[in-house]
Inverse folding.
């Protein structure tokens, strides 16, 4: 075990590709035909890493496939959202003017286990956009929001490790609650434990959509040595 | 190698501690005596992960030591900054009104290899605050900014893997350029390869300042199984 991380990062460094050299290309500001629209939900108290890890992986697709994804942030209003860690973020769209979403991403936020679940406008937006989306993804406690919207009914899913008991208590009759894996894929839903492994769930979807070479290139830009076979995950049919 | 990541994440999940249960505590909005002030520099085109990984680790100290750190973002002006990936961020302070900084953090940004180095106001701010700080940290190409300010003169340092040749060409006479490690610690400077390993450089400083138990707790909140002995790094005296 002690050697494992050393090897991991040594390999990561040695195999990493350049994000910087690619960065001189300007990201496309508008959707182009065939481009998947990734809408990331930012709720007050959103956790930084669960927001930025998938945002980075999906944004960086533009350097590894054509067209890459278009990523934007949507919130209840267009007012600034303050993350749990104090990052003040300007959303790109509100619920009222949000464009179509092909991939709905729900990062965890501070009140995902309580008041967010009682926010009918929030849950209705997630239900509506989640039903229409090709893919839905939660990181960490974002799974509670997806489940409350009914989007995980009959599916296998996971969440932040120490919140597994609460998740099972609340949604266990409708959701096949899984633990001890980085992420779970069932149908169009991908649910991640969150934290640093959030990169993995996003890289997995990149690999499904754009192939292993693209996923490996995207990972390399963040000094991650990506090999899906080494990542603990479950795929349910 | 293939088993390595599986073990890593399985262990990470099994040993993770609850960030959520701690999250009900409100972060302190103002400095308290003995609290280290972490100033994170946000330059236009800042990379998300190199900003949020250290921000998260340092912010989450509040749940594992007392007093934890106070973390804020400083930019040239108080105007919104757009990250490389399109995240629109409101800085907390400008260069003009920034409070004292104990730990200066320089995440990479899109133009760290070119126009940022010619921005005299930026480099002068980094030089001034870096000289006064107890610690300076760069993630990825932020090392170019620290080096341009003279803060790495005579020190060992590293940067993003594919930018090592450019770093050595530009600063090799003044800086002992290191590669194939996650991060390098020399004196008060910690320089990281950036990307996902950015968590490690920040966790290392948490361990130095607050001990291994605190660092392990902070890591667990992001489902990282932290053990410094497993992480490739160099310490120079």
């Amino acid at each position: 075990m002690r050697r494992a991380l050393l090897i991991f990062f040594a390999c990561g460094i040695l195999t990493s590709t350049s994000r910087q050299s690619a960065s001189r290309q300007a990201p496309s500001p508008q959707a182009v035909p065939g481009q998947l629209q990734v809408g990331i939900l930012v709720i007050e108290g959103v956790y930084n890493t669960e927001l930025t890890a998938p945002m980075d992986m999906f944004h960086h697709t533009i350097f590894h496939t054509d067209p890459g994804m278009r990523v934007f942030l949507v919130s209840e209003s267009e007012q600034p959202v303050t993350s749990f860690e104090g990052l003040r973020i300007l959303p790109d769209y509100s619920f009222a003017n949000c464009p179509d979403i092909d991939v709905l991403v729900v990062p965890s936020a501070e009140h995902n286990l309580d008041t967010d679940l009682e926010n009918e406008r929030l849950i209705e937006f997630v239900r509506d956009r989640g039903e229409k989306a090709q893919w839905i993804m939660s990181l960490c406690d974002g799974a509670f929001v997806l489940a409350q919207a009914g989007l995980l009914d009959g599916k296998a899913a996971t969440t932040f490790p120490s919140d597994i008991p609460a998740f099972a208590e609340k949604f266990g009759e409708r959701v096949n609650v899984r633990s001890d894996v980085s992420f779970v894929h069932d149908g169009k839903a991908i649910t991640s434990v969150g934290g640093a492994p959030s990169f993995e769930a996003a890289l997995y979807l990149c690999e499904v959509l754009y192939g292993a070479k693209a996923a490996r290139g995207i990972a390399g830009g963040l000094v991650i040595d990506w090999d899906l076979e080494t990542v603990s995950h479950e795929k349910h049919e």
Notes: The first strand of chain A starts at residue 37 and ends at 41. Confidence is low (pLDDT under 50) at residues 1-18, 20-27 of chain A. The two ends of chain A are 32 Å apart (CA to CA). Residues 17 and 220 of chain A are 5 Å apart (CA to CA).
